[in-house]
Write a structure and sequence with these properties.
alpha+beta; two-stranded antiparallel ribbon; 20 helices; 14 strands; globular; TPR-like_helical_dom_sf; signal; SusD-like_N; RagB/SusD family nutrient uptake outer membrane protein; SusD_RagB_dom
């Protein structure tokens, strides 16, 4: 084997091996001692460990931004923990030297190692007792390698793409082979379009070598197609293609180009044809690691989400505080927005009654019942600032989504539960299709005969959520593309909230700076005691103003990379 001066940061420092855990067969890498390059490429477990390292770097929870959800840097929520990374982000304390969203170094480390695997790890024997199974396993590993490379390229594009001083939108330097340090330092950033195409190409290669899903059975050798929860599949590759194409067609990166929207719609529909109809929602929908909703995910047994976000009365920190802005975005159960006085049936005196079922699965509000406790958000209640200044909600709301009622934080009776981090959920593909098809052809058109309109896709999402009537969506669709766009954006907001999409969606839609800096609103709940009874008065309040600058529609390139050579140019404004 040739010896080169590779730009390797982590490969020979950490080596990971695969361990199966019980009946779930969920693999989890474990750190081993250092190994030489010769040992890595001569021992199958060590070689495969390089891909396991790439899997391990994918987050296993949503609140990985200094312990917060990225939604807390949007109009969806805020955090009661001052000084945290998202707090600095939304306050404008974001720079090329301090970037809570920086993935540049970590992603490139994985891409370099994956390229090493592609060049070396597919030439060794993994199953010495059966050449056919060995060949099949190497094919699967190849597919995984290309998917993981696409995934980390996507992380770079999502967080670091932006325009240079001349306005050309750039991505990252594309690495498709092993480079020496001298070679790599001379590479410039590729264009955004070239990066998107590379991601799509890698996904195509991955899909050609991977199964649509992993099966199990006595007739299937475990080396090639056992129930490997968390491994990449061809379906995951299709989902990543859909997401990348949707972003590429979005106003921040394109100039009202119907062909790009049409491509995004076709790629979303190709994935929908594989996944089929949306599965139903049950009580464990957001905590079931085996949910049919999931295309690809990681999971873990813990109670850290609850410890951070349970209300004070349940011994939590109450950290994530959904905004009144998000609360008002949820329609009524009949599908009409609360602003529609004529049709919605919304009653300001009873603001939490008769709402979209997703509202109750997402928000804990005053009077909500959770874990047999009634949530008291009043100024004199157990969750108030008076009772617990550091753990009180700033908005009058706590997070319900992802919170498992089976978790207990009480000392001496603590209990954990499984939580998943979904790289892709099936509903995202329907939302992708609805957005792209509407922009390409309008709400009701299907010129390519795909068998689905934008309105059909939105109605599928809303119907699955529990909104039985299509009347509102039908009315909006009849008003045309612009009106239906607002509905699609709102559906995406409430369906994918606290899954770290909103931050990027607002930017790729090229929203106004005023929308990025929308005042976060909440509600003050006051207890009024009389001789007759006790009532509660809800008063709207302004909670916080965000301070994003115009250049913050794009993230920065790390300053250390810009000064490393003259080839990596910074995004405009940073």
């Amino acid at each position: 084997m040739k010896t080169k001066n590779y730009n390797i940061t982590s490969l020979f420092l950490i080596l990971l091996v695969v361990l199966a855990s019980g009946c779930s067969d969920y693999f989890e890498p474990e750190i081993d001692k250092n190994r030489t390059e010769e040992q890595i490429w001569s021992i199958p477990d060590y070689a495969e460990g390089i891909l396991m390292a790439a899997y391990k770097e994918i987050p296993d929870m949503y609140n990985t931004y200094g312990g917060d959800f990225l939604d807390c840097a949007t109009d969806n929520a805020t955090s009661n923990r001052y000084g945290a990374s998202v707090d600095k982000l939304r306050a404008g304390g974001w720079s090329s030297n301090y970037n809570p969203l920086d993935v540049w170094g970590a992603a490139f480390n994985q891409i370099r190692n994956i390229n090493l695997f592609i060049e070396n790890g597919l030439d060794i024997t993994y199953v010495d007792y059966n050449k056919e199974i060995d060949s099949a396993k190497k094919a699967r590993l190849k597919g995984e390698a290309f998917f993981l490379r696409a995934w980390y390229q996507w992380q770079l594009l999502q967080n670091h793409a932006g325009p240079d001083e001349q306005g050309a939108v750039l991505g990252y330097p594309i690495l498709t082979r092993v480079y020496t340090q001298d070679e790599e330092v001379k590479l410039a950033r590729n264009t955004y379009a070239e990066c998107v195409q590379q991601i799509l190409n890698d996904c195509d290669t991955a899909a050609a070598y991977l199964p649509l899903e992993y099966m199990e059975g006595d007739e299937i050798p475990e080396e090639i197609n056992d129930n490997q929860i968390g491994r990449a599949t061809a379906t995951a590759a299709l989902a990543l293609k859909s997401r990348a194409a949707l972003y590429a067609a979005s106003p921040l990166f394109a100039n009202n180009e119907p062909d790009k929207w049409a491509t995004a719609a076709q790629l979303a529909k190709a994935a929908i044809d594989v996944i089929g109809a949306l599965p139903s929602i049950d009580a464990k929908f957001y905590n079931d690691e085996n949910s049919p909703e999931l295309i690809m995910r990681k999971y873990g047994l813990n109670r850290s989400l609850e410890n951070a976000n349970f209300p004070v009365v349940l011994f939590g920190q109450g950290r994530t505080n959904p905004s009144q802005n998000l609360v008002d975005a949820f329609p009524m159960a009949n599908g009409y927005p609360i602003s529609d006085d004529l049709n919605s049936g919304y009653d300001e005196s009873m603001p939490y009654e008769g709402r979209d079922p997703r509202f109750y699965r997402t928000i804990l509000f005053h009077g909500a019942i959770f874990k047999d406790s009634t949530i008291d958000m009043s100024t004199t209640g157990l969750n108030s600032e008076m009772a617990s200044p550091e753990r009180a909600s700033r908005t009058g709301y706590f997070l319900r989504k992802w919170m498992s009622p089976d978790v207990n934080l009480e000392v001496g009776n603590a209990k954990s539960d499984n939580h998943y981090f979904a790289l892709f959920r099936k509903v995202e593909l329907y939302l992708n299709y609805a957005e792209a098809a509407n922009e390409a052809w309008g709400p009701d058109a299907d010129p390519l005969g795909l068998g689905l309109t934008a309105k059909d896709a939105i109605n599928a999402v809303r119907n699955r959520a529990g909104i039985g009537s299509t009347a509102y969506a039908d009315n909006v669709a009849s008003d045309g593309v612009d009106a239906f766009r607002s509905l699609v954006h709102n559906e995406r907001r409430i369906e994918l909230c606290f899954e770290n999409h909103r931050f990027y969606d607002l930017r790729r839609w090229n929203s106004s700076l005023e929308q990025l800096n929308t005042t976060i609103k909440g509600v003050k709940v006051e207890r009024i005691v009389s001789d007759v009874d006790t009532t509660f008065q809800l008063t709207p309040i302004d909670v916080e103003n965000y301070q994003y600058g115009q250049h913050m529609f794009y993230g920065p390139i790390p300053f250390s990379e810009v000064i490393k050579s003259g080839e990596i140019v910074q995004n405009k404004g940073w």
